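Input record (Table S2, row 536):
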Amino acid sequence: MAATDWWRTALVYQCYLRSFSDADGDGLGDVNGIRSRLPYLAGLGIDALWINPWYPSPQADAGYDVADYRGIDPAYGTLAGAEALIEEAHELGIRVLLDIVPNHTSDQHPWFQAALAGDAAARARYHFRPGRGADGAEPPNDWTSMFGGPAWTRVGDGDWYLHLFAPGQPDLNWDDPEVRAEFLDVLRFWFDRHVDGFRIDVAHGLVKAPGLPDAHGVGEPHPAWDQDEVHGVYRDWREVADSYDPPRIFVAETWIGDNERVARYLRADELHTAFQFDLLLAPFDAAGMRAVVEGALAAATAVGAPATWVLSNHDVQRVVTRYGRRQVWEDDASVEQRLADATAPSDLRLGRRRARAAALLTFALPGTAYVYQGDELGLEEVEDIPDERRRDPVFEQSGRTLVGRDGCRVPIPWEDSAPPYGFSPPGAAETWLPQPEGWADRTAAAQTGVPGSFLELYRSAIALRREHWVDAGPLTWLETPPDVLAFRRGDVECWLSTSAAPVALPDGEVLLASVPADVDGGLLAPDSAVWLRSRG
Ligand code: NOJ
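Output record (1-deoxynojirimycin complex):
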């Protein structure tokens, strides 16, 4: 495989900047915090980092409301510091992906401010519309915000503007040539600073159906999402990425349920990869997980793209907590049931055990894998954040019916036995979200060198992945008892059991097991996974 194809098999670590490491003591993660932890990341064996938005932002949605696409928020550091980080990561063999937010800007972005001040050209870069009803008091259409409530907010002159997320995130109008040109220039700005690629926020949202029709009654796809014309945007982006040496790459965030529709973003002249969210949504169930893997591989392979495996990220419940709850497909549960499940007590011991197994599954699959910071420490969702400390706009915008995503965004515990667990230096301000008591054994320091710890399992798995799986070729499914999934790639096999009873393993050398003690006697334990190599 050519060196420029690194993205086809990469293990990428998602660094949620706000919560990764705080060097300056304000309780918020920052660029210098990442720099200080680069040796940790190199020791973990990752190929690349994806850093969540670090641009100047009023932080209405944790930085996904960008006021200046070419800078660094002063709370996070400086452009010089960011350039140094990119350089230092590269010296350690770690590539750097940034997060680009093209669907919307911040309401504090100069363009939106000019639009509010009546500048017609600036206004054309967003979706301003008169309202409906006698005095225009009703929103222009029936679209709802992803965070709750209508997707429209009315401004002083009586018009409304579209925001598929928070009111502080006005949607850009991608029919406007200036919008298109601006983002090509933003890509070049960061590529010129040696950034290796971008994760594209809401990649399927940029282009809206002409006329912004009501969603109700128009069928699929929803007029706000996955419109065919969006692909032209990415053909232009690909040209820019390919004009660099080495070529830069993209990973798309496309929450589209249909694998074939996702694969359209991965055609040879468009994007390189797109998150495959089906495993993140699937229950811990061997048959269901196998179906997800088969579907994802078939669709990606058909367009020559690698599948991109994700178990969690900064938008969803921590995997440990999710796996400790009732395991059902979302579609099989009513809305009430889902809400009840989401707050039911979680069996964290079981959740951890399953999360270890699922990690071995995703690392053994063909394609690329993403690890969300803290998953390598086995962190659980923090579910008792007091209401007044919550920061996710989802909480207020949903009328406090949804707690939002703060629970998976709690600052990382690095060392020590009490908050801030080395996240901030001594004497620092309180962390931006509170950390729980009782994380002393979850810190990176407490797990380092401890056989069987989450962190050591990840370290071993990432090293063995590189050694055995990355070049192992296509996957063949193996015959298994019920509630077991197994495949072979080259001379290595991955077995995962969601069965309640132990299952006999074939003969082979155990390379790694998610619950080491239990593989003795050639048995695959319940809720576990094993990597085997054929003998001889
Ligand atoms: C997806 C991001 O991952 C999420 O955190 C954000 O709220 C929305 N896009 C809106 O930008």
